[in-house]
């Protein structure tokens, strides 16, 4: 179970100040993050340590992360808003 303190912290870390990222990350952390397994939670937290410009390129599908696991998390977030 995810504690409220952790969710609140992640909520604020998910607010990036770039609308395109905020509209993807904030709903994901509120609605999906609590259902993730521990490995995917760690991966999401690692994603948040990335630079905004890098994430912007990944989420706008202009580039891909060199880290396959991070790219899998990006895809998981994008699939939530644009299912195949």
From TrEMBL:
Keyword hit for Cytoplasm: yes
Subcellular location: Cytoplasm
The keyword Membrane belongs to this UniProt entry's keyword annotation: no
Annotated GO biological process: succinate metabolic process
Keyword set, alphabetical order: Chaperone, Cytoplasm
GO cellular component, one term: cytoplasm
InterPro entries, per database record: SDH, SDH_sf, SdhE_FAD_assembly_factor
Family: Belongs to the SdhE FAD assembly factor family.
Protein name: FAD assembly factor SdhE
């Amino acid at each position: 179970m995810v504690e409220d303190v952790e969710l609140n912290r992640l909520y604020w870390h998910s607010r990036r100040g770039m609308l395109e990222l905020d509209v993807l990350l904030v709903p994901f952390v509120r609605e999906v993050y609590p259902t993730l397994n521990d490995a995917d939670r760690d991966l999401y937290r690692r994603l948040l340590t990335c630079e905004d410009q890098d994430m912007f390129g990944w989420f706008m599908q202009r580039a891909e992360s060199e880290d396959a696991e991070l790219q899998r998390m990006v895809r998981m977030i994008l699939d939530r808003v644009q299912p195949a």
